[in-house]
């Protein structure tokens, strides 16, 4: 596709600022990740609310951009070679934004790949497992008589918090002195586990003081505070 207007999603969520990166999202943990990265990088963008509460991700225009039917997704009208680029999956978007702006990831290859491994740690572990705790503890799963699924996901969440706690020993951020997409990938999910799912007690979050302190540092950042409601909730 050669123009932003060639994307079917543009007809459902038209751009008023077509020269800017277009964000299609909702302020869930995965949506907040990309909003926070955009705010941190200073890259101009336009945010469109895709209301997951109304199943808008399952409409044909959105599925044309992300066949997996999940937020967030982006279209960069100034992608590689100056051509528009559509992307889905928050981890891929974080890596793309870091590469495009030259921010939020180290410049030497060794440290860059180390940063990416912690992004994938969130994508493959923290996100899916914490999300299951939310389902079985806060939402419909709490009524399931068999408590073994909840116990399984609580145990694994506690283990993952322990991994993060160990990593933060002697470090301000996951990669040390520099705030990166690794922090941005992880903090919305830790916040959601503690504050939205209210599962701090069952996972024993008080046993991980470095994680708690790191989370508060993440949340104190102006970009993080702003990202928590981008796009604004309906």
From TrEMBL:
GO function terms (MF aspect): transferase activity
Gene3D superfamilies per UniProt: 1.20.1050.10, Glutaredoxin
Ranges where the GST N-terminal domain occurs: 18-105
Domain GST C-terminal: 108-234
UniProt cross-references to Pfam families, sorted A to Z: GST_C_2, GST_N_2
PROSITE patterns: GST_CTER (PS50405), GST_NTER (PS50404)
Identification of the protein by name: Glutathione S-transferase
Organism: Nitratireductor mangrovi
